Amino acid sequence: MKTICSRAVRAALAAAAFSAATIGGSIVLRPGLSPFGQLEAMSALAQDVDAPKARKLKYYRNPMGLPDTSPVPKKDSMGMDYIAVYDDEEAEDGSVKISPGKLQKTGVRSEPVERRVLNVPVRAPGTIELDERRVSIVSFRFEGFIESVEDVTTGQHVRKGQPLLRVYSPALSSAAAEYVSVLGSKAGSGITSQAIRGAKQRLENLGMSEQAIADIERTREPVLSVPWLSPQDGEILERAAVNGMRAAPGALLFRIADHQIVWAVADVAERDLGLIALGQKVSVRPRAYPDRSFSGEVALIYPHINAPTRTARIRIELPNPDGLLRPDMYADIEIATGLERPVLTVSASAIIDSGQRQLVLLDKGDGRFEPRAVKPGRRGDGRVEIMEGLAEDDKVVVSANFLIDAESNLKAALQGLAGGDKPQ
Q1: How far is 339 from 239, CA to CA, in rounded Å?
Q2: Residue 414 to residue 356: CA distance in whole angstroms
Q3: DSSP tag of 143
Q4: Domain assignment of residue 14, given as a range
Q5: Is residue 55 part of a domain?
Q6: Per-residue pLDDT tens for 229-280?
Q7: Is the pTM of this model over 0.70?
Q8: What is the DSSP pairing of strand 234-239 with strand 225-229?
Q9: Cα dist. 161→69, 96, 164, 169, 259 in Å?
Q10: Total domain count, the chain
């Protein structure tokens, strides 16, 4: 029975030793030993091969990521064990090393620094307003009486030169009669061309249209009432004229606005004002038509800040050929304030904001990561401009970087980055 057991043990030792010794396709043998001694040596070699290499303990770090460390095991105020940090997990240059297994479990992902044209949109609420340069009123420069009003109403579109009403005025009739008299006396010796120009100028000063003056020149007959025409194309915003009314000089009879071009006025936050410049492209999306977008440009930045809201007002001019944009509509406005030249950028998720500085984790390969202070610039499209701290060929961690912070003692590395004492 002992013989059988001895043979079984020897066979097991031989199998283990042979498996361990056949490294790289060769068998390791030691001359001068008996067969059983050879098997024992091979078994010891197998144990040496299988045994893990000893790791040198460096210190223990706080489990919550605080910078305090300990040379011996200890617990924090909450009873949590300090985490061991080994020599192969932290380099002398301040970088930290994570094992491949941990990297796979945490889902760490790195991306190269890229040079891109960064689109940085500024979004703001706004309203649609009339272009005040495209609004006209109809009034008289004399006292008159409205004989009749044409069939035009509020909201109706009128064309330039379209009759709106007929007016009678003693001042207008007197000036028209004088002009007829001067024209009829042109052949006489006492009438000069200067007198004719003066009589015509008087009618123009009273606001008579060129068409009505041309009719007087053609017929050579005085008029009692004349048609009053629309000064521009547009929609009637207000009609105050009624048949038979007496109109004082300057009284508003019609107000007409052209909607072919309108304004979008946006209130931009004061912190974004430095990004706005004249001529920038703007997308305006009225809330009444969420599937429609209208394009325009920044035409004016108003010179004052609204103190209660801390906003600045900007104006965008918008073509409105279909008339869909109506005054007082609400709109969502997006201003493209991006740079035209490519700049170094990283994913926004790569930035770690410590409160005092912004950092990224530089991927140095082989599981090593170095915290690097950077100076971020503009943001947009999910990316951040890097003004200082990185080069175009660098790779940075964009996923699970906060897990690396906690797992690989980033806090201690940051102390070295800031010039503090390294843990002992």
Answers
A1: 49
A2: 12
A3: -
A4: 2-50
A5: no
A6: 999 999 999 999 999 999 999 999 999 999 999 999 999 999 888 889 999 9
A7: no
A8: unpaired
A9: 88, 81, 9, 20, 18
A10: 4
